[in-house]
């Protein structure tokens, strides 16, 4: 039994002018949000979408391509394929962000400085808001610290950066969360490429544990100060171990 065709949606013209494909892309995202579709959910096939948005096939395909390039939609090829909902992934956002940072001739030290400024405030918010589910995530992240050595650079960075990602999510602020995780992803990807051995692992673990305990205790002031001290040490370590990256322009 065929499903009813969804009602036609007229793309909304917002404050800035845009091509029709961009307007359709924005309307698709709005529909995804309005319908609360989770990542992986199927979107209508091409024929119903053409009817919904009242546009030509080329315009619809360009709109989907815009979203696919940003990871917000995935188009599965072949029989039974079609568009599915993606996710607001910090990695994809970070890659898009690097295009603007590169065009702005932003240096890598500026990214490090931004993290030093942002992450203490996120730690404070995490402690003050103490979401129950997020606290469980933090406990799991801290469990991953135990027994981790320094012989595997990728594993070391994964555990360390997961901690920072969890704290960003615990801030309860979607803007800080997305930007914090995106900057973390850009930093981690470049540091891994530099192929330096991890340093200060024992100290890093102790600093993470102190920040985590302050969050568990709901002590925002301590969480902020401990994270600031930790991030300043990260910045100092960056200067010591990755001096060649200091003035490097962030690249896509």
TrEMBL record:
SUPFAM superfamilies xrefs:
GntR ligand-binding domain-like, Winged helix' DNA-binding domain
CDD domains under this entry?
Answer: WHTH_GntR
| Residues annotated as signal peptide | none
Q: Which SMART domains match?
A: FCD, HTH_GNTR
Single GO molecular function: DNA-binding transcription factor activity
Transcription regulation listed as a keyword: yes
| Domain of life of the organism encoding this protein | Bacteria
Q: Which Gene3D superfamilies match?
A: GntR ligand-binding domain-like (1.20.120.530), Winged helix-like DNA-binding domain superfamily/Winged helix DNA-binding domain (1.10.10.10)
Pfam families with a match to the protein in the record: FCD, GntR
Record keywords: Transcription included? yes
The record's keywords, sorted A to Z, are: DNA-binding, Transcription, Transcription regulation
Q: Which residues form the HTH gntR-type domain?
A: 18-88
What's the protein here called? HTH gntR-type domain-containing protein
Q: Which organism is it from?
A: Streptomyces nanshensis
């Amino acid at each position: 039994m065929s499903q009813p065709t969804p009602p036609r949606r007229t793309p909304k013209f917002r404050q800035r002018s845009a091509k029709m494909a961009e307007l359709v892309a924005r309307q698709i995202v709005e529909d995804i949000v309005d319908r609360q579709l989770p990542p992986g959910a199927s979107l209508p096939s091409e024929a119903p979408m053409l009817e919904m948005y009242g546009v030509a096939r080329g315009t619809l395909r360009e709109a989907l391509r815009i979203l696919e390039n940003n990871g917000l939609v995935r188009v599965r090829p072949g029989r039974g394929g079609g568009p599915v909902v993606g996710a607001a992934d910090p990695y994809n956002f970070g890659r898009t962000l690097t295009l603007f940072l590169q065009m702005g001739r932003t240096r890598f030290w500026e990214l490090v400085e931004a993290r030093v400024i942002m992450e203490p405030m996120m730690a404070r918010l995490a402690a003050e808001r103490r979401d129950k589910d997020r606290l469980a995530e933090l406990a799991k992240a801290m469990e991953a610290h135990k027994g981790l050595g320094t012989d595997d650079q990728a594993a070391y960075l994964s555990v360390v950066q997961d901690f920072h990602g969890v704290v960003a999510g615990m801030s309860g602020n979607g803007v800080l969360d997305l930007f914090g995780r995106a900057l973390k992803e850009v930093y981690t990807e470049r540091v891994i490429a530099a192929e330096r051995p991890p340093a200060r692992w024992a100290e890093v673990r102790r600093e993470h544990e102190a920040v985590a305990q302050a969050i568990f205790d709901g002590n925002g002031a301590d969480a902020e100060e401990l994270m600031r001290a930790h991030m300043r040490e990260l910045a100092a370590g960056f200067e010591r171990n990755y001096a060649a990256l200091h003035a490097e322009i962030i690249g896509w």
